[in-house]
Specification:
Length: 80
Protein backbone atom coordinates (compact mmCIF):
# COMPACT_ATOMS: atom_id res chain seq x y z
CA UNK A 1 0.00 0.00 0.00
CA UNK A 2 2.87 2.31 0.82
CA UNK A 3 4.46 1.69 -2.59
CA UNK A 4 1.18 2.50 -4.37
CA UNK A 5 0.89 5.85 -2.56
CA UNK A 6 4.52 6.58 -3.35
CA UNK A 7 4.05 5.91 -7.06
CA UNK A 8 0.79 7.91 -7.19
CA UNK A 9 2.47 10.82 -5.42
CA UNK A 10 5.39 10.66 -7.82
CA UNK A 11 3.06 10.65 -10.83
CA UNK A 12 1.17 13.66 -9.47
CA UNK A 13 4.44 15.55 -8.92
CA UNK A 14 5.60 14.74 -12.47
CA UNK A 15 2.25 15.90 -13.87
CA UNK A 16 2.45 19.20 -11.98
CA UNK A 17 6.01 19.82 -13.16
CA UNK A 18 4.98 18.97 -16.72
CA UNK A 19 2.13 21.48 -16.61
CA UNK A 20 4.42 24.20 -15.24
CA UNK A 21 7.02 23.55 -17.93
CA UNK A 22 4.33 23.67 -20.61
CA UNK A 23 3.08 27.04 -19.32
CA UNK A 24 6.59 28.49 -19.14
CA UNK A 25 7.49 27.37 -22.66
CA UNK A 26 4.23 28.76 -24.01
CA UNK A 27 4.93 32.10 -22.30
CA UNK A 28 8.41 32.22 -23.83
CA UNK A 29 7.10 31.62 -27.33
CA UNK A 30 4.32 34.20 -27.25
CA UNK A 31 5.35 36.79 -24.66
CA UNK A 32 8.73 38.03 -25.82
CA UNK A 33 8.70 40.49 -28.71
CA UNK A 34 11.91 40.79 -30.66
CA UNK A 35 13.68 44.11 -30.14
CA UNK A 36 14.20 46.35 -33.15
CA UNK A 37 17.95 46.62 -32.61
CA UNK A 38 18.39 42.86 -32.94
CA UNK A 39 17.32 42.86 -36.58
CA UNK A 40 20.16 42.60 -39.04
CA UNK A 41 20.77 45.73 -41.10
CA UNK A 42 20.48 45.54 -44.87
CA UNK A 43 23.94 46.03 -46.28
CA UNK A 44 24.57 47.20 -49.84
CA UNK A 45 27.67 48.03 -51.83
CA UNK A 46 31.15 46.61 -51.80
CA UNK A 47 32.48 44.61 -48.85
CA UNK A 48 34.43 47.67 -47.66
CA UNK A 49 31.26 49.79 -47.75
CA UNK A 50 29.31 47.06 -45.99
CA UNK A 51 31.95 46.95 -43.28
CA UNK A 52 31.72 50.70 -42.78
CA UNK A 53 27.92 50.56 -42.69
CA UNK A 54 28.04 47.83 -40.09
CA UNK A 55 30.57 49.75 -37.98
CA UNK A 56 28.37 52.88 -38.11
CA UNK A 57 25.30 50.84 -37.14
CA UNK A 58 27.11 49.27 -34.18
CA UNK A 59 28.39 52.68 -33.07
CA UNK A 60 24.88 54.14 -33.29
CA UNK A 61 23.41 51.21 -31.35
CA UNK A 62 26.04 51.55 -28.62
CA UNK A 63 25.46 55.29 -28.34
CA UNK A 64 21.72 54.74 -28.16
CA UNK A 65 22.14 52.14 -25.40
CA UNK A 66 24.45 54.44 -23.44
CA UNK A 67 21.99 57.32 -23.73
CA UNK A 68 19.16 55.09 -22.53
CA UNK A 69 21.29 54.02 -19.57
CA UNK A 70 22.09 57.62 -18.68
CA UNK A 71 18.40 58.49 -18.92
CA UNK A 72 17.49 55.59 -16.60
CA UNK A 73 20.10 56.75 -14.10
CA UNK A 74 18.77 60.29 -14.22
CA UNK A 75 15.21 59.05 -13.77
CA UNK A 76 16.24 56.86 -10.83
CA UNK A 77 18.07 59.74 -9.15
CA UNK A 78 15.09 62.03 -9.67
CA UNK A 79 12.80 59.53 -7.95
CA UNK A 80 15.03 59.38 -4.87
Amino acid sequence: MRIVFGIVGLLIAVAIVGLLVKQQLHALRTGVPEPEAASAPVLTGTPAQQSQQLQRQVTQDINKALQQGMQRDADAEAKQ
